[in-house]
Write a structure and sequence with these properties.
Layout lengths: L8 H4 L10 E2 L16 E4 L7 H9 L4 E4 L3 H6 L10 E3 L10 H4 L7 H18 L1 H12 L5 E4 L6 H12 L4 H9 L1 H4 L2 H6 L4 H8 L1 H8 L3 H15 L2 H7 L5 H11 L2
Parallel strand pairs: 2-5, 3-4, 3-5
Antiparallel strand pairs: 1-2
Helix pairs in contact: 5-12, 5-13, 7-8, 13-14
């Protein structure tokens, strides 16, 4: 059995030139003393800016499935092009705006506290709005289509919840799940990304940095809100996994056999 090692940003980061918040989210210890395998689970923000060398490296990882949680207009604006036809690429079209940073900024006179409260409210609805995507994610794991990569635009909210659910299903303790979630703050180089864009978020970055911070930063209260919502509405994470996503105890045991050392 390999020794569980806390993933520092340096250990989780891949040797890529133009990735955004793209990292391995294995390497964590579970409550029963096992370890999530490295090289099996990846999470990312937009991958539209990857260089040819970056694409070659990602292809070399043997990724079998990608779950892209973005809405259709996001995928059109910033397509993911590096994978070949042999990779199972999941995406879906939907109308919900939860998780889209730009949508949350279309409010006149919003303050930083307004944005923080909006983010907290967001984490109450993500498990409902994106349940279909999370079912697809777990279905691919159940079918053995790993290594798996999950992504959205920032790799923080829709992807952050997806990664948290996977780690919870594998038996990773909640404080460790929060640690992985907060690692976005070390991996996401917003100054670099927004310099490549002419979007509402990029323009507001120049004039309303204080108001943007709650949207761009991962804060533990956001993930705490997710877990509290699952506790209140579904009897906890296991209840949500079982009743909403169809990931029962047997499926979780199978996942652990596949993804844990």
């Amino acid at each position: 059995m390999s020794e569980p090692v806390a993933l520092t940003p340096e250990k989780a980061r891949l040797p890529l030139e133009s990735a955004f918040n793209l990292r391995d989210f294995g390497g964590y210890a579970t409550a029963d003393g096992r370890c999530v395998k490295r090289g099996m689970l990846y999470r990312s923000g937009t991958m539209a800016l990857l260089t040819d060398a970056d694409a070659d490296h990602l292809r070399s990882l043997g990724i079998k499935a990608i779950c892209d949680f973005r809405r259709g207009n996001e995928r059109t604006a910033e397509p993911t092009l590096w994978h070949g036809s042999e990779v199972d690429y999941f995406c879906r079209d939907y109308a919900e705006s939860s998780g889209l940073l730009g949508e949350m900024l279309k409010r006149d006179g919003a303050t930083a506290d307004d944005m923080r409260q909006t983010m907290i409210a967001l984490y109450r609805v993500i498990p409902v709005d994106h349940a279909e995507s999370y079912r697809a994610m777990f279905a691919r794991i159940a079918d053995g289509r790993v290594p798996l990569l999950i992504n959205c635009s920032a790799g923080k909210d829709r992807t952050g919840v997806g990664a948290a659910l996977v780690l919870a299903a594998l038996g990773v303790p909640r404080p460790t799940i929060v640690q992985d979630y907060l690692a976005t703050n070390a991996h996401a180089d917003w100054d670099w990304l927004l310099a490549q864009r002419n979007t509402l978020v990029a323009r507001m970055r120049l004039t309303r940095t204080d108001m943007l911070e709650p949207l761009l930063k991962a804060e533990s209260v956001y993930l705490d809100t997710l877990f509290a919502t699952l506790d209140e509405s579904h009897g906890g994470v296991d209840g949500y996994l079982n009743d909403v996503l169809g990931v029962d105890a047997a499926a979780r045991d199978s996942m652990r056999g596949m993804l844990l050392d």
